[in-house]
User: Fold Glutathione S-transferase family protein from Photobacterium pectinilyticum.
Amino acid sequence: MGKLVKGVWHDVWYDTEQSKGEFIREDAGFRNWLTVDGGAGPNGEIGFKAESGRYHLFISLACPWAHRTLIFRALKGLAPHIGVTVVSPDMQTKGWEFSQPDPLYGFDYMHQIYTQAKSDYTGRVTVPVLWDKKTETIVSNESSEIIRMFNDAFNDITGNQQDFYPHALRQEIEQWNEFIYPNINNGVYRCGFATTQEAYEEAFDNLFSALDRLESHLAASRYLVGNTLTEADWRLFTTLVRFDAAYVGHFKCNLKRIADYPSIQGYLKELYQYPAIADTVDLYHIKRHYYFSHNMINPTGIVPKGPELDLLSPHGRASLR
Ligand SMILES: N[C@@H](CCC(=O)N[C@@H](CS)C(=O)NCC(=O)O)C(=O)O
Assistant:
């Protein structure tokens, strides 16, 4: 765990001293957009045109943010067009590292990809990273934006028109994202990375009241936004599928398990059983990364053998609207 300062790697844990023990996630540093014609997206520089074989994803199978991008690559038929490199689940003093030298440059560490893009980069070295092989730089390291690029920029190339961010539903999708990101997606991290009792308890209370609200919503609604599966569901899914295996124990999110919420559990199973999704979920990487890498939280590095998860039994959601 660490960060780059003016292009030099420093092995440091998150600094929570300025924020009374609260974990505050740093904003992503590369925010360009890949578009149909290479025009600028909502922010960033022009020049990143959707082309087959030009872009590469660097991800961790453990990371919920990176997982979103792998899911959209699968859902949108992008596997033949965008390559993927998976980092080792073990993130130690040099940050994310490759199990074998990376296929583009032969690097050993993810921070070298960042300094290849910007030699004096300052910031955390996070995954996912969307890399442009043509201009040899990072297009984006912000998962919420990468999934929107994948949602529509390659439609002419793939012929896949499925839309997880339809115009008519954008306002409702944004409202769910704004609720789920701080309380649930980042909420589990705010529990796990808190360094004071107060910061932990506040994050914990927010997390479980958000899950209670979700449980009652999903009792009557098949997906977050009615009967339409949207990006908001996939953003939620990557946290839910890690919850019982990692967050309950490692991040002390232990008031209840997802398995104790009947509607959320059914919803989780339905999304897990959606075509091509189970193949994107790697519980070995998930448990190994969290329990073995965060030695400030779990100094022995012992990875628990359990729990048993039931993600394949019938989800019983088909009659909901
Ligand atoms: N805003 C980023 C967050 C990505 C992120 O924080 N990834 C974590 C892995 S789960 C990471 O790489 N952390 C390394 C670090 O903070 O040093 C996104 O959603 O893409």
